[in-house]
Write a structure and sequence with these properties.
With about 160 residues, this protein is an alpha/beta fold. About 35% of the residues lie in helices and about 10% in strands. The chain contains 7 helices and 4 strands, in the order βαβαβααβααα. α2 links the parallel β2 and β3. The chain is globular, with a radius of gyration of 16 Å. It starts with 12 loop residues before the first strand and ends with a helix.
Length: about 160
């Protein structure tokens, strides 16, 4: 996914996560800053692959992504925040190919607190999911896996 500099949107930084670690708060702070541009949508999911991330927008193409970073913004820096970028290990290569100078920011939270907060977010969307304790014991979900920060950050 190499591009010439002229055809790439200017993305100076990407906040990669972690989920439930204050990224919405950071997004709102950055959005209010007069010298920083972030797209209206918090999580673009452009660098997520469609086969394992149901929110992936890769199929929309670079033009779609580029449209989120309007040229000529009077901002000194621009960036985006997508927490799934930290969870999927291939994203680091795609980001590097896209912009090797891009700064990566990772927000972290106590993994147990993060898992508990994520559980209640999931529960709000789907009341039929198992109890928190059962979800923790299960290896078929990402509730615990998203807290393995070393594994996720090592490629970066």
């Amino acid at each position: 996914m190499k591009h010439d500099l002229e055809e790439k949107p200017r993305v100076d930084f990407v906040v990669i996560g972690a989920q439930k670690s204050g990224t919405t708060w950071l997004f709102e702070c950055l959005d209010e800053h007069p010298e920083i541009y972030v797209p209206a949508e918090k999580e673009l999911h452009y660098f997520c692959h469609e086969d394992d991330c149901r929110f992936s927008t890769k199929h929309e193409g670079l033009g779609w992504y580029d449209a989120r970073f309007k040229p000529g913004q009077p901002c000194k820096v621009s960036g985006e925040l997508t927490t799934d970028y930290m969870y999927y290990k291939y994203v680091v290569d795609d980001l590097f190919q896209f912009n090797s100078e891009c700064k990566i920011v990772a927000l972290l939270r106590n993994p147990v607190d993060r898992a508990y907060s994520a559980y209640w977010m999931w529960r709000r969307h789907n009341r039929s999911i198992p109890k928190f304790e059962d979800m923790i014991r299960s290896s078929t979900n990402s509730l615990v896996g998203r807290g393995y920060y070393y594994q996720q950050l090592k490629p970066y």
